[in-house]
């Protein structure tokens, strides 16, 4: 990194781009790097490009300066352009042309699939988050509350507040350093991670009440009709977290949330607590995901969907029983 | 601590007691110390006394050996007795006589109110948890997965998984060391912290659906009737976490959950997100608690309770507005 920062001394204009549909780690890392560069080089131009910044992240420094489009008809040319948290170039979305136009490019990421598409690449698949990779690159003596807040936010969003298996001793040690800079961590966790609108809590309530257990208590299923979502004026995003609340039901191996999005069209989200591979089920319906979190679209009545999906889950459970016995 | 461990060399029988209604930090610290002592001194007798061990903590080492009563008519006499996580002697409950009978006593705690009632006292009010105090006292080279698991469990329960303001840089650093011993932290967080029974999720769903906003969206209120709880065969414990889910509603300063426990009798739980002092409201009804979490019992119809409590909340909000302006 020292080399980048040395070569940066000569860059007058620096651009930073994150991935489409930016999440906490993407926004956190982009704004952390922006803040750091502005602090270290007050006279340079530093621009951040993100599709949007969620309301709950607007308290972060420089969030109001984020560019959601490319100004003017001529694309700006940056001496240096950073792609952050983006597994491949496509993920940059509307800022990809700026990457191609730039004098020199840097790629900072933690996705194992990242092939290293820039002039300089810092890819650490063992890191919990891009914020973790970034923190190891930055000069520690420039840390302050604002910078630490951006980095901390990214780490908690990609680790589920130090819960997911990507959390390591090193992650926790870095977070320890960060909170020592008076990061308002209780507030950040509550307001960016757990906060729900009244409406989202209503929908969560509906989904919990509609839930039922199948496969001898090993699978919990819930569904929400289009008319319910329309009644609340809610979108898919308002269902975030619902399947995770179902997943933590005692005794459950798999949680399924079925969302009717149109006539005989259902979006199915699945979560697995242990060894059931829900992506194998999703793939049968043209969907995808990971072993523990996957999704697909299934056509038919709600009864068809429940029957078809749970049959596949039952097969997976039986396979596991055979393996375990 | 070295002195205790030196004096312990001569103790043949060691007792450990936690507080009544033991929580994660209490169970975690008692079983951590028990495990440590058994590992360090395999020939000594080490007994742990706890009122009960919750099902979700039964995976901890030695949990099945915990004594929930005192054996026989003659009280055993321990050479050394540890009181853990107990702010005062009364908190020990049924094991208090064992403390009085012991040759020497040790008090390890993090409650600021702890006056130091034992022969040897280790009280660190700045620590997040008794597990944190304990970890700083133990010899690190005896750490292994089982010991680390007990200590980690206590820390996450008292810090709300590193969220509450008692979490410090030191807490995070200790947790970093612990997870490096292959503590199954994802599983522990899910299964001891977030897990709910199907029934508890049903009740949560009911309470979310019944909730409504008052005081211009600054206060969310919900209630659950006795007949609903009876229908589900649920007890007060099944309402754990409900008021916290209400509290994270966007825009809300105060969350209130009203639980009808008998004819015209209501238990009121209140949580505050910022500066409203809910304990001031609880005290007016003979209840108590802290600034951000308090409770009381209020008599009258549900309408009386809602009206009376929210009037007090409104007063608190007005006071804050005056202070802030």
From TrEMBL, chains A, B:
<dbReference type="InterPro" id="IPR038763">
    <property type="entry name" value="DHH_sf"/>
</dbReference>
<dbReference type="Pfam" id="PF02272">
    <property type="entry name" value="DHHA1"/>
</dbReference>
<dbReference type="GO" id="GO:0003676">
    <property type="term" value="F:nucleic acid binding"/>
</dbReference>
<dbReference type="InterPro" id="IPR001667">
    <property type="entry name" value="DDH_dom"/>
</dbReference>
<protein>
    <submittedName>
        <fullName>Phosphoesterase RecJ domain-containing protein</fullName>
    </submittedName>
</protein>
<dbReference type="InterPro" id="IPR003156">
    <property type="entry name" value="DHHA1_dom"/>
</dbReference>
<feature type="domain" description="DHHA1">
    <location>
        <begin position="218"/>
        <end position="318"/>
    </location>
</feature>
<feature type="domain" description="DDH">
    <location>
        <begin position="14"/>
        <end position="155"/>
    </location>
</feature>
<dbReference type="InterPro" id="IPR051319">
    <property type="entry name" value="Oligoribo/pAp-PDE_c-di-AMP_PDE"/>
</dbReference>
<dbReference type="Pfam" id="PF01368">
    <property type="entry name" value="DHH"/>
</dbReference>
